[in-house]
Each structure stands twice: as structure tokens, then as C-alpha cells.
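Usage

Read records sequentially. Each one opens with the input sequence:
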Amino acid sequence: KAVKSNFCAISFFDSNNLSLAVFINNNCELIREISYENFAAAEQSVLDSLKYSYGRSETKQLNKLYFLGDIEGKQDLIKRLKEQIEVTDETPDLQTHLRRIPYHDLLGKLNLAKSHALLLPLKNTIKRALALVLLAGTVTAVVRAMESQKTANEIKELRGSINHEELQRARELLSKIELLSHDL
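and closes with the structure output:
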């Protein structure tokens, strides 16, 4: 039978960033990258993240807490976190702990999208709506292009249908109309 446990791994990967992963009953409940300006902010962000993961789970306590990466100079922060985060078991390191859990049990349940399953239908709906808007825009562009071409053809026909003699005669008639309108 697989070892069921609740644990948190905090990895300090550079001076102002850490990653946090919370596993409840070997299910990954939370993975988060936290940027911080000082250790107090880092401590508060870690505690807030744990409260969030506890709120999503029936279990409200961790069995184990691991600190990885560059922990030099962060011993005070680690000590404060250990004091505030009650753990029930002390395992020497994460590798020893993970060796006790069958990988198929840990990785087979690693479902990061589980809590966001509603996002997929919403994402698909948005994609369909965008496709419809794109289709409507394309149809409108094609119709406008056809109208423009039709107008251009009509202008071309009009230019070709008027010859020079008819134009001269139209000008003469226009000037006669203007003279008659002034005489009245």
C-alpha cells in the first residue's frame, strides 16, 4: 500500500524567489512561485499559500516540510516557518521521503488542472466565439471588396460611355440653362 502523507517542499532557487509545492495524500494541491522583497514577505506568502491549500483539503496539517536549494542565509526564515507550520513527522530529506512513495502513486495523481476543470469549457466557448467573430469579419470584408469592385466597374463603364462630343454638347446645354435662368 502506498504511503499517504501530506508534505510541502519549499525550494529557494535564487535570492528573491522560491517555489512551493504542497502534496495532500500524495496529490499535488498547489504549485506556486513566490517572489519576495524580504523574508517577512516570503514567510507571509508561504503561510497564505498553505492556508489556501488547507482550505481546499480536508486535512489541515502537514506531515513533513522540506527546504531545498540555496538555503544559506535563510536559516532564520526556515526556523520561523518550521515554528509556524506544525509537522507531525521529521524525515531527513525529500529524496528519502519520495523513495517511500511509489512514483505511479505520486505522479499518476499529479493533476494540475483538476481544480480548474471548468476553465476548459470556458476556453472552448471563447475559442468558438472568436472563430465566429473572425468568420463574420471575413464575410464582411469579402462583401465590401465585392461592392468596391462593382463600384469601380460602374465608374469604368461611365467613363467609357461618355464620348467627347456628348460631353461638349452637355456643357453647351448647361451654359444655355444658366443663361436662361439669369434672364428670368
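Summary fields computed downstream for this record:
- The chain is about 55% helix and 15% strand.
- The helical segments are 39-55, 75-84, 94-100, 103-107, 119-161, 164-183.
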